[in-house]
Design brief:
This protein has one domain. It has a two-stranded antiparallel ribbon. Helix 5 packs across helix 9. It is mostly helical.
Length: 200
């Protein structure tokens, strides 16, 4: 298909497709002349991925470029998968410091995580910001949140483990984390309403 047909198949304007090509997040088509190229199903899939990450996942083009590079060169073994995935995912705001409270929480939960890793620092910053805004996140509430997220993580890891290949598993972890986060937010709000009604 030509680029105009790719635009029609994906609902993405031609000028946006050309932007994706220039930025390297969409692979070039097969050249048929000096000014024309043919695109296939793999291009349709890539455009939908990029569009989803940018429009719904809020990922920058630079972030998409990192994700695409990781998907094109997945790690050879599954144990390396999560590290590559987390390194590729866009990071939240952080001051780069891990609070003593969060470090103690990780130890208390028995989680085998990298204490200096970005998620631990992000949690420290997010917790400080929440409390600074007047949200009283108590240590007990934080622990209950952590246990709830552990249950979510069980689902994530089960889905990734069921993938047929490291490439598919990496796609599941990286793209799934970005695209499922809004699903989790919506479910949380629905659950808040349901619990509130149930408790009268």
């Amino acid at each position: 298909m030509r680029i105009s047909e790719l635009a029609e198949a994906t609902g993405v304007p031609v000028h946006t497709l050309k932007f994706y090509l220039r930025e390297g997040v969409l692979m070039p088509g097969t050249a048929t002349s000096r000014t024309r190229a043919e695109y296939g199903p793999e291009h349709v899939e890539r455009v939908r991925l990029v569009r989803g990450l940018v429009e719904y996942g809020g990922v920058s083009v630079e972030g998409v470029r990192s994700i695409v590079r990781a998907l094109e060169s997945p790690p050879p073994s599954r144990p390396e998968l999560l590290g590559v995935a987390h390194a590729t995912l866009p990071a939240g705001p952080t001051r780069g410091e891990v609070s003593a409270e969060v470090a103690a929480l990780v130890d208390d939960l028995g989680w085998q995580v990298w204490h200096e890793g970005p998620p631990v620092a992000e949690l420290s910053s997010a917790l400080e910001a929440a409390r600074g805004a007047g949200v009283p996140v108590s240590p007990e509430a934080l622990r209950r949140y952590a246990r709830a997220m552990e249950a979510v993580a069980e689902v994530d890891v089960d889905v990734a483990a069921a993938a047929a290949s490291p490439t598919e598993a990496l796609h599941t972890v990286v793209v799934g984390t970005v695209m499922v986060d809004p699903v989790l937010v919506a479910l949380r709000r629905m659950a808040q309403e349901a619990v509130s009604v149930a408790r009268g």
